[in-house]
Write a structure and sequence with these properties.
Layout (H helix, E strand, L loop, with lengths): L2 H12 L5 E5 L4 E14 L4 E14 H4 L3 E5 L4 E4 L15 E2 L4 E7 L2 E6 L4 E6 L6 E2 L4 E7 L1
Antiparallel strand pairs: 1-2, 2-3, 4-11, 5-7, 5-10, 6-9, 7-8, 9-11
Length: 146
């Protein structure tokens, strides 16, 4: 994310009524902005005034999860966590997966494409919701390697 884009976000949040916004960009950058009301008291004049303070926190999830690998969608389609609506999900957070194990299905043009793990490890995060439309390269799972 470029400096001018960050500056525009800061200005935009200062001009709206909501107090917090969190964004996660496809490249792994997380942005969390909170607007906080603070009271400043001038003791000599005993006047109170209210000011807005904006706190900007930008995290790169790559640095947070350096030992995590990301399974990304190889195509545009619909993400399914199980083989049918009544079936158990292929994997859950905390499950151990093996290389080649099916972790989800991405439906594209009426074809059900099984997505397999490229690594052995533990599922630490499921990055998308069941039945969500995913783009090419959308993170699907974070796997902590062994």
């Amino acid at each position: 994310m470029e400096y001018n884009e960050i500056k525009k976000l800061i200005n935009d949040i200062g001009n709206v009524d909501f107090e917090e916004i969190s964004l996660e960009l496809p490249d792994g950058v997380k942005i969390n902005m909170k607007k906080r009301q603070s009271e400043n008291v001038n003791s000599s004049l005993a006047n109170c005034s209210s000011t807005n303070e904006i706190k900007l926190e930008i995290k790169d999830s790559k640095s947070e999860n350096e030992d995590c690998k990301i399974i990304k969608s190889p195509m545009v389609g619909t993400f399914y966590s199980s083989s049918s609506p009544n079936a158990q999900p292929f994997v859950k957070v905390g499950d151990r997966v093996k290389k080649g194990q099916v972790v989800c299905i991405v439906e594209a043009m009426k074809l059900m494409n099984e997505i397999e793990s490229e690594w052995d490890g533990e599922v630490v995060e499921i990055c998308t919701k069941n039945e969500a439309v995913v783009e090419y390269g959308t993170p699907l799972f974070k796997i902590k390697g062994e």
